[in-house]
Amino acid sequence: MLLEWWSGTECTMYTDPKSLPYYGKENAIIVLNHKFEIDFLCGWSLAERFGILGNCKVLAKKELAYVPIIGWMWYFVEMIFCTRKWEQDRQTVAKSLLRLREYPENYLFLIHCEGTRFTEKKHQISMQVAQAKGLPSLKHHLLPRTRGFAITVKCLRDVVPAVYDCTLNFRNNENPTLLGVLNGKKYHADFYIRRIPMEDIPEEEEKCSAWLHKLYQEKDAFQEEYYRTGVFSETPWVPPRRPWALVNWLFWASLLLYPFFRFLVSMASSGSSVTLASLVLVFCVASMGVRWMIGVTEIDKGSAYGNIDNRQKQTD
C-alpha cells in the first residue's frame, strides 16, 4: 500500500510477451539483483499485481526473523531463513525447501544470489575473489553465491517449471529508500524479466554453478545497456494496479486506529502528569522502533557479510 498508493511508485516490466500468460499462474524461482533498499518492495508490488503476493516466499538472512512484527510475520508464513554459513544451512535450508514442494498453491520463491546488498566496498572484494577463481569480472553485481541457488533448484526442480531472471533498476539514477517511500516520494522502477524453463538449467551442482555465473554475466550486460540507453531491450508493460492492498489497509486502519486514537485522547485529557509522561515515552519508544526497523533496509547500515572486515571466512 505504501509503495503503490502512498508514494505512487511506478513499476514497469520489460519482458517477452509470450511469457506473460505464465506470470502468476505457475510456481517460479526468482533471481533478483540486490542493489536497492526497496528492491523487495518492488518485487512485492509485481507479485500483488499478478495476484500472488500472499504466496511469496524468500530465502532471507536469519537476523530478519527477529525484527518485530515483520520478522515474526515472515516466520509464520513459512519464509526460509539461513545463517549464510554453508555448514549450518546445508540441511536446514534443504529441509525447508522440501516442505515447500507440498505447498498447495502457486508461489514465487525469491533468492538474492549475491548474498548481500551491493556496495562499492563489497564489489571490490567480490571481484578480487572472482579474479582468484578465474571468473569474469562483473561491473554492476557481486559474484553470486552458487550453493544456495543450486540446492534450491535441486529441491524444487520437479514442482517449479521455471526460473524468472529479474533485473531491477530505477530511472534517472534514482536512489530509492524506504524512508523516501514513507515520506511519499515517487520512484520509477524498471524490471527486466526473463522466463527460463527449468529444463534449461543443469542438474549437476558444478554445471549449475557455472550456469549461474553465466547468468550474472548476462545480467551485468543488461544493466550496462540500461545505463547507456535508459531502457531495457524487451517490450515494456505496466501491470494494472489492484485495489486490494489499499482496501485491506483501510479496513484494518478503521478497525484498529479509531479506538486507539480515542484511547490516546482519553489519556491526554485525563490531566495526569504521570499519564502524559508515559504517553510521550511510549511514542518515543515506538518512533525509535520504527526507525530501527527502517535501518534494517538501509544499505550503509547493512550486514558485514561480504566485507573484508567480516572475519568469518566466506566461501562459495
UniProtKB/TrEMBL annotation:
Has keyword NAD?
no
Task: Extract the SMART domains matched here.
Answer: PlsC (SM00563)
* Reactions the enzyme catalyzes: (4Z,7Z,10Z,13Z,16Z,19Z)-docosahexaenoyl-CoA + 1-(9Z-octadecenoyl)-sn-glycero-3-phosphate = 1-(9Z-octadecenoyl)-2-(4Z,7Z,10Z,13Z,16Z,19Z-docosahexaenoyl)-sn-glycero-3-phosphate + CoA; 1-octadecanoyl-sn-glycero-3-phosphate + (4Z,7Z,10Z,13Z,16Z,19Z)-docosahexaenoyl-CoA = 1-octadecanoyl-2-(4Z,7Z,10Z,13Z,16Z,19Z-docosahexaenoyl)-sn-glycero-3-phosphate + CoA; (4Z,7Z,10Z,13Z,16Z,19Z)-docosahexaenoyl-CoA + 1-hexadecanoyl-sn-glycero-3-phosphate = 1-hexadecanoyl-2-(4Z,7Z,10Z,13Z,16Z,19Z-docosahexaenoyl)-sn-glycero-3-phosphate + CoA; 1-octadecanoyl-sn-glycero-3-phosphate + (9Z,12Z)-octadecadienoyl-CoA = 1-octadecanoyl-2-(9Z,12Z-octadecadienoyl)-sn-glycero-3-phosphate + CoA
Q: Which InterPro entries match?
A: Acyltransf_C, Plipid/glycerol_acylTrfase
What keywords were assigned to this record? Acyltransferase, Endoplasmic reticulum, Lipid biosynthesis, Lipid metabolism, Membrane, Phospholipid biosynthesis, Phospholipid metabolism, Transferase, Transmembrane, Transmembrane helix
Q: In which pathway does it act?
A: Lipid metabolism; Phospholipid metabolism; CDP-diacylglycerol biosynthesis; CDP-diacylglycerol from sn-glycerol 3-phosphate: step 2/3
UniProt cross-references to PANTHER family, sorted A to Z:
1-ACYL-SN-GLYCEROL-3-PHOSPHATE ACYLTRANSFERASE DELTA (PTHR10983:SF8), 1-ACYLGLYCEROL-3-PHOSPHATE ACYLTRANSFERASE-RELATED (PTHR10983)
What is this protein for, i.e. what is its function? Answer: Converts 1-acyl-sn-glycerol-3-phosphate (lysophosphatidic acid or LPA) into 1,2-diacyl-sn-glycerol-3-phosphate (phosphatidic acid or PA) by incorporating an acyl moiety at the sn-2 position of the glycerol backbone. Exhibits high acyl-CoA specificity for polyunsaturated fatty acyl-CoA, especially docosahexaenoyl-CoA (22:6-CoA, DHA-CoA).
**Name of the protein:** 1-acyl-sn-glycerol-3-phosphate acyltransferase delta
Source organism per UniProt: Mesocricetus auratus
Origin organism lineage: Eukaryota, Metazoa, Chordata, Craniata, Vertebrata
Gene symbol of the encoding locus = Agpat4
